[in-house]
Amino acid sequence: MADSIHPAAIEHLPPFITAPGQTDYLFYGVIIFLIVVVLVIGNLYFQLHAVPERMAHRTSKVQMEIVAVLALISLFTHNHLFWIAGLLLAFVHIPDFSTPLYSIADSLAKLSGRPTVDEETDNPARIEHSEPASLPEPVVRTNTMAEGSAHV
Questions:
Q1: In total, how many domains does the chain have?
Q2: Do 19 and 1 contact (CB within 8 A), yes or no?
Q3: Mind listing the pLDDT tens digit of every residue in the chain (152 residues)?
Q4: How much is the pTM?
Q5: Domain for residue 47, yes or no?
Q6: Dihedral sign, CA of 36, 37, 42, 45?
Q7: Could you tell me which of 51, 61, 86, 125 has the fewest CB atoms within 10 Å of its CB?
């Protein structure tokens, strides 16, 4: 090995310096280490971006979809304001307004004699366009006070 050392080199070389034509184990070790570190940091980055979306799975479907879209926008644009907005939206519980409104619409449809939304989706061929059910006659009240008396 003393013959392969350059004449200008010092006599004691560190062990990571290899002779020409030999395998450089330090180089391959650093390459493998860098690949593992990049994959681990990338995985942590994607896990962090998915935190609002995982939190939003406990909420309604619409809220979860909005949070998921905000997380994707922040991932592609690198604008962290979208991620923060998605995180805050995942923390807030938005009340369900659609269920009571659908219930009111179904009740009004039943009162008017029209098929409800559930009946329309069950059998669309059964739907007929008929006259709405007649409303009950209004109650006529008579004035019990004398017509000539003054109202205070």
A1: 1
A2: yes
A3: 445 677 787 878 787 888 778 888 999 999 999 999 999 999 999 998 888 888 888 788 888 899 999 999 998 998 889 999 999 988 888 777 888 888 898 888 888 887 766 665 665 554 455 555 565 676 666 666 555 555 55
A4: 0.50
A5: yes
A6: positive
A7: 125
